[in-house]
Amino acid sequence: MILRLLVALSLVAAAIQPAAAQSVRIKDLVEVDGVRSNDLVGYGLVVGLNGTGDGLRNAPFTEEIMSNILERLGVNVQGEQFRPRNVAAVFVTAQLPPFARAGGQIDVTVSAIGDANSLLGGTLIMTPLNAADGQIYAVAQGTVISGGVDAEGDAARIVQGVPTAGVIPSGARVEREVEFDFTQLSSLRLALREPDFTTAARIEDVINRSVGGRAATMLDAGTVRIDLSKTGATSPARAIVALENLAIEPERRARVVVDQRSGTIVMGADVRISRVAVSQGNLTLRIEEAPVAVQPNPFAEGETVIVPRTEAEIIEEPGIGLAEVPSGATLSEVIAGLNALGVNPRDMIDILKSIKAAGALHAEFVVM
């Protein structure tokens, strides 16, 4: 087994070469401090459903908002009893993008909060959308597009997708702008999406080489400050245009990500394994009860007795014998070697966990 594993690893090592580092634009690695979207949320009513709305007895808040809307439209419903099944209370969510201007349109997501079965074919009534400061920044209205299907008969029902949620493309119109004067900034801060000292230093170096001065300064692993007065740009926007398309080679931490549910293993090219020995096998314990009824002989005195019978068996499935992984092997080589031996993904994940616990896997190990 040791020879088979070493041969498999040597064949794979000859075929696998480390991938060359790829240059990535700065705009794909950082966010500009202050240039961000804002979350919006609202509470509204979807009408026009084909009998799939809220049961108003189980969702009294639906009746309340419907009464409020009708009263605003001049319809007095106080003391009236109405139980329509074509309305549903919903939460409406959206993201206000940076630099959104009044009159612009954004997409919204509509989700039922009552016991409605489906929002398919419904229309969202005018719903104000608030931000965290309590101010209204957009108003949503339109026909809900749901990707789910809900059908039922007298004795069966089938549901595909999520019919109780949907979207309205360009369903909200911006009514208020976020107060942020980008043109008055004297400096910019670039926030790295994945903080790393080496990547931040490379961003600083490439920007300073581009402008021919010390315009960029690395503050920490996640922040690079740019002095706009030293870039020669006429405005902050022009400075961003000149710098965001510069390319660098980002540094990534060695990381292994495994998904136990699907058996997926994703690894970086820099993952290394120290010299370690691996032995793996599966034991299955099977116990069966087969009681036997013993009866007395004909015309004899006695009682029927239940005699227990138990069958116990231990099954050892074939696994990997004691195999040694050479020092400095990459994880991709080890995985390919295990694949060549026919190890299934579930057992492979268990082996990687054990190698990490032994301190031989030099990478961040993430289990999903």
UniProtKB/TrEMBL annotation:
| A Pfam family this chain is assigned to | FlgI
Q: Where found in the cell?
A: Bacterial flagellum basal body
Annotated Gene Ontology MF terms? structural molecule activity
The record lists the organism as: Citreimonas salinaria
Q: Which biological processes are named by the entry's GO terms?
A: bacterial-type flagellum-dependent cell motility
**Which gene name belongs to this protein?**
flgI
What is the superkingdom listed in this entry's lineage? Answer: Bacteria
| Assembly, per entry | The basal body constitutes a major portion of the flagellar organelle and consists of four rings (L,P,S, and M) mounted on a central rod.
Family statement: Belongs to the FlgI family.
The protein's role, per its UniProt record: Assembles around the rod to form the L-ring and probably protects the motor/basal body from shearing forces during rotation.
For this record, an example GO cellular component is: bacterial-type flagellum basal body, distal rod, P ring
Point out the signal peptide segment. 1-21
What name goes with this protein? Answer: Flagellar P-ring protein
Q: Does the keyword Transport apply?
A: no
Instruction: Give the UniProt keywords, A-Z.
Output: Bacterial flagellum, Cell projection, Cilium, Flagellum, Periplasm, Signal
Q: Which InterPro entries does this UniProt record tie to the protein?
A: Flag_FlgI (IPR001782)
